[in-house]
């Protein structure tokens, strides 16, 4: 099982709550789909009991500081390809809908994980697209993450 989050935007309470859920659920991997924002957030992710994979979002302006702060947790990039339990995963922030659609339609991935919209949305099909919503709760008023079983692609929305 993996834990999926995005758009934490410095909200330390949301990040800590997500880390707590992921640790309680004993996820094997945590995936963050961008907009970490500040280097100081790395300290909360350091409490994870699972590895972290994260990417940059469109609001991550302090890239050098983020790369230094997250260096021991994971490398930060704009896009990542992952493989978990034989599932090919594309990880992108998703500022361009056409790019998200192209990844989904390419047939190369079992799963596309994206963020950016701050709206929780799961689209099932030959390529599943998961947007876990926002960990910060700033736009929607809801702080959410997703737990995803990589074996059968079943998922659960978790309110923080």
From TrEMBL:
SUPFAM superfamilies: Metallo-dependent phosphatases. Keywords: Metal-binding. It comes from the Archaea. Its cofactor is a divalent metal cation. Residues 2-152 form the Calcineurin-like phosphoesterase domain. Its EC number is 3.1.4.-. GO terms for molecular function: hydrolase activity; metal ion binding. It holds the Pfam family Metallophos_2. Belongs to the metallophosphoesterase superfamily. YfcE family. This is Phosphoesterase. It comes from Methanobacterium subterraneum.
């Amino acid at each position: 099982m993996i834990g999926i989050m995005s758009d934490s935007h410095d909200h330390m309470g949301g990040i800590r709550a997500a880390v707590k859920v992921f640790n309680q659920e004993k996820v094997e991997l945590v995936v963050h789909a961008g907009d970490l924002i500040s280097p100081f957030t790395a300290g909360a992710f350091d409490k994870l009991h699972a590895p972290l994979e994260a990417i940059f979002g469109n609001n991550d302006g302090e890239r050098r500081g983020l790369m230094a702060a997250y260096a021991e947790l994971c490398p930060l990039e704009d896009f990542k390809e992952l493989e978990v339990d034989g599932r090919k995963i594309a990880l992108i922030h998703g500022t361009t809908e056409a790019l998200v659609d192209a990844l989904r339609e390419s047939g190369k991935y079992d799963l596309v994980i994206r963020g950016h919209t701050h709206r929780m949305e799961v689209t099932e099909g030959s390529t599943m697209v998961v947007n876990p919503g926002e960990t910060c709760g700033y736009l929607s008023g809801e702080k959410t993450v997703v737990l995803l079983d990589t074996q059968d692609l079943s998922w659960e929305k978790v309110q923080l």
